[in-house]
Amino acid sequence: MWLSSGALEGDLVVLEPLSLLHCEELRDAVSDGTSWQLWYASVPAPQDMQDYVEKAIKGLARGEMAFVVKTKHDGKVVGTTRFYDVKEQHRRASIGYTWYSDSVRRTGVNTECKYLLISYLFETKGALSLEFKTHFFNQASRTAIERLGAKLDGILRSHQVMPDGSLRDTVIYSILSHEWPAVKNNLRAKLDKY
């Protein structure tokens, strides 16, 4: 496996490999808010958490890595994120399936999570690029990705069929390895505020 399944630790958060033992804590986390009700987001409803976690764990066989996000000051699970669509041969991966409790929105949690994941990909694994993908109508996600310093690559129209039968236009962003030093400085400056 190109990506290992160890924990990643920062000043604000710990990204711990996802396991079935996290289901109850993740149910509590997703219940802090209503993001699971957004038609354009892939956030599981509380009652669907077991299935969501089981599917994420199955991704290990494809070289994917899923994490729970814990706040460091109290060890509370506040969300999840993962590496997926991992292409070892091409030294690239996507970061996504990210969602958080409402209580940690507009804090340093997402910024530090992305800093840890991107640092790991570029500095530890020697990745050439990474991608972020989101629904065209998920403006909050698009804004957050752009704030990281990722650049818009394009839009894949009618890319996926959503659970409700609507078609998803997928917006693709990327960060290339040579862009990482500037993106890193940007993220560090944002984290310094926290």
From TrEMBL:
Domain N-acetyltransferase: 14-151
SUPFAM superfamilies referenced in this protein's UniProt entry, alphabetically: Acyl-CoA N-acyltransferases (Nat)
One Pfam family linked to the record: Acetyltransf_3
Gene3D superfamilies found in the cross-reference section: 3.40.630.30
GO molecular function terms listed in the Swiss-Prot or TrEMBL record: acyltransferase activity, transferring groups other than amino-acyl groups
Protein name as it appears in the record: N-acetyltransferase domain-containing protein
Organism: Pseudoalteromonas luteoviolacea H33
